[in-house]
C-alpha cells in the first residue's frame, strides 16, 4: 500500500449510494457484500450496566504476538455503510506485516480550532459548561449512549461494542459533537457516520462460546466524509500517541448525569498495562465507552475507553481502555481517511 495514495476520497461507497454490491475501494482492495443489515435498537449503556457486575476474563496476549496470518484474519475489516455490511475479500497481510514490524506507532498531531480553546482543569467528573468549545467539541454523544472522539478532519474513534453486539449491528440514530442540553444542543449538526469499520475478531467473538473474550479488538473507525467533509476542522481533533505514563483525561457522556446529554470531564492515571489494554483509575460510567483517553500535556489519545470491570474475590474494581498501539494505528490508517493534515 502506497502511503501517498488517495486520502481525500471515501474508501468505498457512501451511505447515499451503497447498493449492497461488491466494490473495489480507492486503494484497489476488493470488498464483498455480506448482506443487508437489520439494525437492532440497543441502549449500549444498559448492556454495560449488566456486564459491570460480571467478572470478565483477563486480557488476551498482545495481538502483536500472533502470526501474520492470524493477525490479518482477526483484523480483517467488517464495514457498515448505508444499511449494508461488507467484508474485505481477503485478509490484509500487508497491514499485519506493518503492525508486527512497528515497535511503536508514530505520534500524530491534533488540531484545536483557534476560537474554541478550553483550559482543562484537574477536577474529576466536572461538567463541561460549554462543550461546543475544546475539548468538548471533539467528543460526540451517540444516540445508543456511547461517546466518539475526532482524531482527524473526517475520522473519529469509538468502541466496537457501541456498534455490534450479540451477532447484530446496532442502530445509531444520531451522532452529535459538542452535544449539550443547553442550546446550541448540537452545535456542529447531528448525523450518522458515513461508514463504521470494525475488526473481524470483534464480530467473531461477540457470540458463541468465546463471547466476552474479544475486548482486545474493541475499536471502531468512524468516517464522516464526503457527507460531512472536514467536520474536524470545526470540532478540532486529538492527536494520537502510545503513552502509558502521566495524567490522562476522558471527556464523555455518562448515563448517571441527567438529563442527557451532558458532557463531563474526568482525570486520572493508567495503573497497569496488560497486553493491549491499559487499566486506569479514571471515573468511568456507562455512556463513556468509545471516548479517547488523552494525555494532559499534549492532548494525544493513548486509549479508547472500553470496559468497566469488577471482581468479588478478592474485591477489585477497575476500568480499561484499548490502548493506542501499532495495531490500532495501522487499522485506522488502512481503513479510514486518516491521518490527514
- Taken as a percent bin, the fraction of beta residues is 25-35%
Number of helices: 6
Amount of helix: 10-25%
Low-confidence stretches: 4-10, 116-123
Biggest sheet features: 11 strands, antiparallel
The SS-based structural class is alpha+beta
Average pLDDT, rounded to a whole number, is 85
Span between N and C termini? 19 Å
> What is the radius of gyration computed over CA atoms, rounded to a whole number of angstroms?
18 Å
Largest sheet: spatial strand order: 1-2-4-3-13-14-8-7-6-11-12
**Silhouette:** globular
* H/E element sequence: EEHHEEHEEEEEEEEEHEHEEEEEEEH
Task: Tell me the total number of β-strands.
Answer: 21
Question: What does this entry look like structurally?
Answer:
The chain has 341 residues and is an alpha+beta fold. The chain is 13% helix and 29% strand. It has helices at residues 44-52, 68-75, 93-101, 200-204, 232-235, 326-335; strands spanning 23-24, 30-36, 77-81, 84-88, 126-127, 139-142, 146-150, 155-158, 164-165, 168-169, 175-177, 190-191, 195-199, 220-223, 239-240, 247-252, 264-272, 277-280, 292-295, 300-312, 315-323. It has an 11-stranded antiparallel beta sheet. Helix 2 crosses helix 3 (93-101) and helix 3 packs antiparallel against helix 6 (326-335). The protein starts with 22 loop residues before the first strand and ends in a 6-residue tail after the last helix.
Amino acid at each position: 500500500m502506497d502511503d501517498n495514495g488517495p486520502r481525500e476520497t471515501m474508501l468505498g461507497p457512501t451511505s447515499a449510494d451503497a447498493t449492497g454490491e461488491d466494490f473495489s475501494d480507492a486503494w484497489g482492495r476488493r470488498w464483498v457484500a455480506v448482506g443487508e443489515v437489520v439494525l437492532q435498537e440497543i441502549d449500549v449503556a444498559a448492556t454495560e450496566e449488566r456486564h459491570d457486575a460480571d467478572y470478565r476474563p483477563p486480557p488476551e496476549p498482545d495481538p502483536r504476538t500472533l502470526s501474520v496470518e492470524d493477525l490479518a484474519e482477526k483484523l480483517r475489516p467488517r464495514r457498515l455503510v448505508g444499511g449494508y455490511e461488507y467484508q474485505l475479500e481477503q485478509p490484509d497481510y500487508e497491514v499485519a506485516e506493518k503492525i508486527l514490524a512497528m515497535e511503536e506507532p508514530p505520534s500524530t498531531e491534533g488540531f484545536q480550532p483557534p476560537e474554541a480553546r478550553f483550559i482543562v482543569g484537574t477536577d474529576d467528573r466536572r461538567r463541561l459548561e460549554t462543550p461546543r468549545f475544546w475539548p468538548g467539541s471533539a467528543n460526540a454523544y451517540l444516540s445508543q449512549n456511547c461517546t466518539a472522539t475526532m482524531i482527524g478532519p473526517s475520522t473519529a474513534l469509538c468502541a466496537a461494542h457501541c456498534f455490534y453486539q450479540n451477532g447484530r449491528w446496532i442502530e445509531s440514530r444520531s451522532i452529535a459533537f459538542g452535544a449539550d442540553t443547553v442550546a446550541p444542543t448540537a452545535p456542529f449538526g447531528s448525523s450518522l457516520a458515513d461508514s463504521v469499520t470494525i475488526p473481524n475478531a470483534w464480530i467473531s467473538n461477540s457470540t458463541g462460546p468465546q463471547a466476552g473474550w474479544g475486548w482486545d479488538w474493541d475499536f471502531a473507525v468512524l468516517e464522516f466524509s464526503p457527507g460531512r467533509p472536514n467536520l474536524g476542522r470545526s470540532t478540532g481533533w486529538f492527536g494520537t500517541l502510545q503513552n502509558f505514563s502521566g495524567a490522562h483525561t476522558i471527556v464523555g457522556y455518562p448515563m448517571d448525569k441527567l438529563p442527557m446529554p451532558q458532557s463531563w470531564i474526568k482525570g486520572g492515571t493508567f495503573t497497569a498495562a496488560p497486553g493491549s489494554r491499559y487499566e486506569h483509575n479514571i471515573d468511568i460510567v456507562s455512556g463513556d465507552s468509545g471516548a479517547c483517553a488523552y494525555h494532559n500535556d499534549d492532548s494525544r489519545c493513548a486509549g479508547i475507553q472500553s470496559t468497566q470491570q469488577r471482581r468479588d474475590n478478592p474485591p477489585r474494581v477497575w476500568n480499561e481502555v484499548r490502548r493506542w498501539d501499532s495495531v490500532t494505528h495501522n487499522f485506522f490508517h488502512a481503513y479510514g481517511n486518516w491521518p490527514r493534515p
